[in-house]
Write a structure and sequence with these properties.
Elements lengths: L14 H26 L25 H30 L6 H24 L9 H28 L11 H29 L5 H9 L5 H4 L3 H18 L8 H23 L4 H26 L5
Length: 312
Amino acid sequence: METTLQGSERRAGPAPVVSYAWFTLGWTLLTIVLGAVVRGTSSGDGCGASWPSCDGAFLVSSASDSARVIEFTHRAVSGLDLAFIGGLLVAVWRGLPAAHRARRTAVWALLSVISEAGIGAMIVLYGWVADDRSTPRQISVPLHLVNTFALTGLLGLLVWQIRGGRALAATRTRGVRAFVGLGALIVLVAATGATTALADTLFAPESLGHGLAQDLDASSALIVRLRVLHPLVAVGVAMLLASYVWRRLDDGVGNRAGQAVLGLLTVQVALGVLHIALLTPLATALLHLVVAQALWVAFLFFAFDRLEVREG
C-alpha cells in the first residue's frame, strides 16, 4: 500500500474560499504579466534604485514618464498580490479544519510570494534593470521566473486541495518520478524562455536572418548564442509531454486537465513560431507567458488528479 500524506479523505473547503483562491491565482498571473511588461519596455529603472517606494514616494502623481508609471503599476499590483495571498492564508486557516493539508500549502505560498518580492527588490536595488547586460541580471531573470512557477504551482495545489483533493502518493513510484521529471522539464523550458526574452530585449533582431546571424556569431554575447536553445528544448519537451498525456487519457482520470494540457501545448507551439516570425514583439511575448503559466497549472492539475490516493 502506498504511503499517503495525512490520509486520503476528501475535505472540500467553503465555496467562498475556493473562489478567493482562484481569484488570487488569477491576480498572481496578472502580476507576472506586468513584470514581463516592465522587462519588455525597459521600465525597470522607472522608480530609480528605490524599493518598495518609487523614488521615495508611494504614489505617482504624474503620468508623463511612462517607465515610471509602468514600474509603479507593477509594484502596486505586486503589493496587492502579497496582501491577497496573506488574506488567503487567513481564510484557509479560519475556514478549514486544523488537519487540512491546504493550511501548510497556504503558508508555503506566502513564503514564495515573499521570496518573489525579495528577488524583485534585489534586481531593482542592484540596478539589474533596463539596458543592464551584466551577468547577475542574466542569472536573476530566469531565477525570478522559476520562482513565479513555484508560486503559481503552490497556488494551483492550494486551489486543488481546497476543492477537496485527497492526499497525493508520497512513495517514489514510477508515476511520481515521471510527473516530477516532466514538471522539472517544463520549468527548464520556462527558464530558457526567460533568458531568450531578455536576449530579445537587449539585442533585438532586425530580421530573421539578422537574428540567426547573431545566434551563430562567436563574438555575440553568450546570452544571444544561447537563444537558440529555447525553441529546441521547448519543442522536444512539448512532444514528450504531449505523448505522455495522450497515452493516459483512456482511463478517464484527469481527462479535463489532460485535454487542457494538449490544447495549450498546441497553442503554445503556434505562438512560439508566430513570436519568432514577427521578430519577438512584446504582445506575443506576453501571450506566450500567459499560456506557459496556464499550461503549467493545467499540467499540475493533471498530475494531482492522477497521483491522488483513492480509497478501495
